[in-house]
Amino acid sequence: MNFALGQRWISDTESDLGLGTLVGIEGRMLTLLFPASGETRQYAQAEAPLTRVVFNVGDEIKSAEGFSLLVTAINESHNTLIYSGNRTDNGEKTELKETFLDHFISFNKPQDRLFAGQIDRFDNFTLRYLAWQQQSRLQQSPLRGLQGGRMNLIPHQLHIAEEVASRHAPRVLLADEVGLGKTIEAGLIIHQQLLSGLAQRVLIVVPESLQHQWLVEMLRRFNLHFSIFDEERCQQSQLDVSNPFDTAQLVLCSLEFISSNKQWLEQAQSSDWDLLVVDEAHHLTWSAEHVSKEYRCIESLAQDTAGVILLTATPDQLGQQSHFARLRLLDPDRFYDYQAFIDEQTQYQQIAATAAGVIETSPLSDELANSLQQLIHEQDISPQLALLRQPEQSPAVAQARQHILAKLLDRHGTGRILFRNSRASIKGFPARLERPVALDLPEQYQNALKVYHNLNNSSPAAEMAQANLFPEQVFQAFEGSSSQWWQFDPRIDYLTTLLKQHKPAKFLVICAAAETALAVEEALRQKEGIRAAVFHEGMSIVERDKAAAYFAQEDYSAQVLVCSEIGSEGRNFQFAHHLVLFDLPLNPDLLEQRIGRLDRIGQQHDIQLHIPYFKDTAQQVLLDWYQQGLNAFVKTCQTGRTVYEQDAVSLLNLLAAMQPDPTNVQQLIAHSRQRHQQLQQQLEQGRDKLLELNSAGGEKARQLAADIAKTDADVQLPMLMFQAWDLLGVNQEDRSDTSIVLTPAEHLRCAYPGLEDEGVTVTFDRDTALAQEDIQFLSWDHPMVTGTLDLLLNDNLGNTAVALLPNKALPVGSYFIELIYVVEASAPVSLQIGRYLPGTPIRLLLDKTGNDLAAKVPFDNFNRQLKPVGRQTASKLVNALQNLIHPLFSNSEVNAMAQLATLQQTALAKMQQALQAEQQRLTALKQINPLIRQQEIDMLSSKQQQLTEYISKARLKLDAIRLIVVNHD
């Protein structure tokens, strides 16, 4: 290298210093000043990590004085360059010595970086191209937003999410029975709406007791960070902003908080929301005579919010007026008159009965065929009806049945706004096996209860019942903290024996109170040395996570997890199938919630319900009432709340007595059983099989689950992430066969998304993530993965490279230029332009004559033949070939533009086909199904017009360049 004062160089190792000027040559040492950063560096001439900055004819360069010059000629004087050309501001011809180049010149374009010697590692280029391919695929994927949830792949849940989340401003009621995953369905819808850009701001309103459950579910399952808004949060935020609700995108608050404070309700109303989600919506009471303040609160929010999702497990058959009230919140224009609604329900039931006939009848009767022709009169379905009249079953008959059912589903009124799945229609639940064990009431408890009754004989029945059901609390209150009830309570001996008999099986123990849970854990540890974790509402989220992880892991783990009533909310422990009900709650819903920690879709074993109780006491009365009156242990009890509300006075009086009258107990049980059976019969008669079919999704839903499972098994994501971690400076250490601990390396290049200083454990395995909630489940939807793609593609990393091609069939010194162009189509995020025209990489492989060989030479095969080369050698190769390869760039753009035009045509055709078909379908159905909103149809039309314009304006960006030189080594 010939060095001369005034030459401009950049540092290969410190490119952020800017453009350097050679200001000193003394012996073998060089001194460079970097004016942009104010730094000075000295280098040995023989080993200086420097690259000479040389521009070419046709480049636009900037002077230190601020004007730009379009270079037309380059001369050299005393080993320094002089650029000649025309100023871009006034056209004046001028010369610019390299010494006076702008100090702040940055080399962001790949061609600038390549010629400036800023050449990246060979494998970085490969990773960049791979990242673009994956980004393009993800933007078009129909699974986006569905595949990333920490959840089992349950077809009906995925179907509902896909059906609802793709709508503009969905307004629906999710009414699945308990245990079927309404919260998961809502979370999937929220997740997909946010990822697709259809929603940006979400407000979730739930009963106060469920706030923590929702916070945990959204965070653990979907990586959605909601902020809880309460009195303290709002008051603090109001010190800085006028409306506290504008300070967060994702807000979670309690119904009690927002409905009891007019100021905060008005603030919430005035904030702009895209989606409102309300859980336990059946508690919102409405009638023509009286409307509750909670209902008015949600009504006011729903009126001002485009998308509304209501969740309820209460079937409409137990209260048509209540059901109408919920539908009225979703569409007040449509559901304005209760009597009209009742009349329409009769029509829907006729359609449902016809659908049931199609499902169950084979061959089809003439009467049923005539009914179908009347219902689907605007379309010729005679070919399908002819097939269904055949006695034999075949794929063609099955296809015809699906076609008919699909037409009925489209026409079914509430099927578009209401989704309900029942356990009767969804398979996959385990059996529930009850194991009650009668124990004698200890003398200590007997004495404590006698004293309590003598002192409180005039107390309300509810308080006396509470004392009888939980005698350990009464004893402890009398004896003080120094006395430990667990030392004599026979339930402790029963529990320790049970655990030892079934070792190493996992047991979940649930108690009513946190104090009881803590005492049970202490007893197990001290008496038998049994490893146990405790889980209650007094613990922080981090502490609960640690306890749950200690219970979930296989090695060196807790055999038992002891939970309090509230502490167990929001957690599912499906890897365990032994549940110990240390005591029983009064509320049937709480009992179902306890069992529901294990009894959920995805449970692989029958659930063993171990129920120790004190015989001939209030505990036995409650046990018998649940067991004989409601059958609540073996079956999910949908009627429990209603029956309890009707029989609560009688039940509490019996539970409050020291010695309940057996005759009265049996009379109560008989009355409750009769009412339970009546309600169950009403529910079964009212089952809408067409609605259930629509909600379950059928074969389409099963295929959706299979597609996600296939994606889970694909190795593309792990391969990409491992390469990215190595490149970006993230250490990886195996924690198990399916989990990895990530920690920052000393050379971490950037603030890596989701990586704390102490590290994080991740897995690509869904089963591992479900079993261990402290492990992050990495999918294409996970923020760490999407953040990694952003890091790889938004930086310059990997956009230049040089490689050698050892191929003796080609002359030594032959060269190729590999160019990666990327399609850029900008549009509002809500239009989802990426579904039709994503950021697609266009690869060109040019020989010295400009011929494109990319179609004949696939990237992967070609890439495997190449060898990396050191940076200094790479710079020499670039400098030697610079004048030859520079003209190829202008020729390459013509080729890339032709491919862009083809992509645009394909994207327009795909978009128009999808949106026009849906628009035509909804327009036709609106004549039959009044729940089709004109707003949806208009939105599709507007979306089509806007997308047509934005797709036509797509442009190209040269994203990466690789020079390949042939050698024979």
Structure description:
The protein is of the alpha/beta class. The chain has 6 domains: 8-106, SH3 type barrels, CATH 2.30.30; 150-331 and 417-424, Tandem AAA-ATPase domain (Rossmann fold, 3-Layer(aba) Sandwich), CATH 3.40.50; 336-414, no CATH class; 436-686, Rossmann fold; 707-793, Dihydrodipicolinate Reductase, domain 2 (2-Layer Sandwich), CATH 3.30.360; 800-967, no CATH class. The protein contains 33 helices and 31 strands. The strands form 6 sheets. A 7-stranded parallel sheet has the order 12-13-11-14-15-10-16, with helices on both faces. Helix 21 links the parallel strand 21 (578-581) and strand 22 (607-614). The longest helix has 39 residues, at 888-926.
Outline the fold blueprint.
Blueprint: E1 8-11, E2 20-26, E3 29-34, E4 39-44, E5 50-52, E6 60-62, E7 68-77, E8 80-87, E9 93-97, H1 110-115, H2 122-140, H3 155-165, E10 171-174, H4 182-196, E11 202-206, H5 211-222, E12 227-228, H6 231-237, E13 250-254, H7 255-259, H8 262-270, E14 275-278, H9 293-303, E15 307-311, H10 320-330, H11 338-360, H12 366-375, H13 382-388, H14 395-411, E16 418-419, E17 432-439, H15 443-455, H16 461-469, H17 471-479, H18 490-501, E18 507-510, H19 514-528, E19 532-535, H20 541-552, E20 560-563, E21 578-581, H21 588-595, E22 607-614, H22 618-630, H23 640-656, H24 662-685, H25 689-696, H26 698-713, H27 716-728, E23 730-734, E24 739-744, E25 760-763, H28 766-771, E26 776-777, H29 783-794, E27 800-806, E28 815-824, E29 841-846, H30 859-865, E30 867-868, H31 871-885, H32 888-926, H33 934-952, E31 955-967
Parallel strand pairs: 10-15, 10-16, 11-13, 11-14, 12-13, 14-15, 17-22, 18-20, 18-21, 19-20, 21-22, 25-26, 27-31
Antiparallel strand pairs: 1-2, 1-5, 2-3, 3-4, 6-7, 7-8, 8-9, 23-24, 24-25, 27-30, 28-29, 28-31
Helix pairs in contact: 2-27, 3-4, 3-26, 4-5, 11-12, 11-14, 13-14, 15-17, 16-23, 22-23, 22-24, 23-24, 32-33
